[in-house]
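User: My instructor asked us to take a sequence, write out its structure as tokens, and then describe one feature of it. I'm not sure where to start. Here is the sequence I was given:
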Amino acid sequence: MNDIPRRERLIAALDVPDAAQARAYAERLGDAVRFYKIGLELFTAGGYFELLAWLRGRGGKVFADLKLYDIPETVRRAVANLRSSGAEFLTLHAERSIMEAAAREKGALKLLAVTVLTSFDQKNMAEMGYAGSVEDLVLQRARAAMESGCDGVIASGLEAPKIKAAFGDRLLVVTPGIRPAGSAMGDQKRAVDVAQAFANGADYIVVGRPIRDAADPRAAAEAIQATIAFVFKD
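Assistant: Let's start with the prediction itself. The structure tokens for your sequence are:
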């Protein structure tokens, strides 16, 4: 994955209430960001696909973080509709029959399987009736994602080393829950900082609140880009 442009390794989450605010936020970030995540908050606000096209028209790449989870036929048909949207990535939950159905319709769209949300920890797993470790479940789901035809996984930086050890470049690892030094954890439970995420094998990071809530979001994004440039320096 060394051919990924450095400045595209940062995916900024446009986690704002509506498309107008998302456009204003993207304009404020300027060329500090080239890759954007648009998720459920914007999907429920209206103008989602118009925003996606606008971001693409400005030269940006877009990650449609919709975390699809439904019966396989419904997901298959949804992916068939989404594959021409211009999105680079699309998320879905890591259930084998759902992933296999989605993979049949993905075209050039890259599918990312959500392994275990970074807001979950071992206690949450136990409450859902899972007796194994978070790490074991992440690896199990990563294997299922690869075998089902997905292009990558959403996984925390804590599990990234074992995913890369097991699957190498056969799976992209996209890591959310990034918390630069001094950032509040919020609802994240399995978080790492920028340098640690890439040291552990992440190909991309998704950063939301540490940029959005900064006094100067563009400066915060540029600081992350500087760390990425240092990590991947020749």
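For the description part of your assignment, you could build on this observation: DSSP finds eleven helices and eight strands in the chain. Try explaining in your own words what that tells you about the chain.
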